[in-house]
Amino acid sequence: MTLLKVNQPKRFVNGWMDELLNDFPTAFGKTFSEDFFTPQVNIKETNEAYLLELSAPGRSKEDFKINIEKNLLTISSDKKSEETKETEKQIRKEFTLQSFKRTFTLDEKIEADKIEAKYENGLLLLSLPKKEEVKLAAKEISVQ
């Protein structure tokens, strides 16, 4: 099934009101999303660790600040100001790096001292290793 956008003729009385209401969510969404940016996160589990992947393209490893306080893992990045060259004139700018802060509650099963992080290809990858007593090998029980 193909969806088509239909341009309906504007009504004289409500035409300006329809145009205002149709454009309002777009304008509101731009400022709203800029103020409340949250990077997307994938969390995976293996027998040895939890793997956290945070999507943050366009940054470097120095841009991230990762802290553990009590049982909270906090990942943040501040918005950096971009330098403009005097020889260039900006015609349109759509790329922006937003500040963000994500906090995760750590389970008692995680060894906080051994958490590792690396940044590659726009993903911040964290490995949250499990404690030894949690790493239980699969065991088969025979039926008698």
| Number of alpha- plus pi-helical segments | 1
Per DSSP, what share of the residues sits in E-state strands of 2 or more residues? 25-35%
Write out the strand line-up for the largest beta sheet, numbering strands in chain order: 1-2-7-6
Give unreliable regions as ranges: 4-8, 29-34
Major sheet description: 4 strands, antiparallel
Structural class: alpha+beta
Mean pLDDT: 77
Q: What is the N-to-C order of secondary-structure elements (H for helix, E for strand)?
A: HEEEEEEE
Approximate shape: elongated
Cα end-to-end separation: 58 Å
Number of strands: 7
The gyration radius over C-alpha positions equals 24 Å
Helix content: 10-25%
Describe the protein.
A 4-stranded antiparallel sheet has the order 1-2-7-6, with no helix packed on it. The chain has a 3-stranded antiparallel sheet with strand order 3-4-5, with no helix packed on it. A hairpin with a 2-residue loop joins strand 3 and strand 4 (72-77). The protein is elongated, with a radius of gyration of 24 Å. It has 144 residues and is α+β, with helices and mostly antiparallel strands. The model is unreliable at 4-8 and 29-34 (pLDDT under 50). Helices cover 15% and strands 29% of the residues.
Topology of helices and strands:
Layout: H1 15-35, E1 41-45, E2 49-55, E3 64-69, E4 72-77, E5 100-105, E6 116-120, E7 123-129
Antiparallel strand pairs: 1-2, 2-7, 3-4, 4-5, 6-7
Main attributes?
144 residues; 7 strands; 15% helix; 1 helix; alpha+beta
Write a brief caption for the model.
The protein is α+β, with helices and mostly antiparallel strands and 144 residues long. The chain has one helix and seven strands. The strands form two sheets. The chain has a four-stranded antiparallel β-sheet, with no helix packed on it. A three-stranded antiparallel β-sheet has the order 3-4-5, with no helix packed on it.
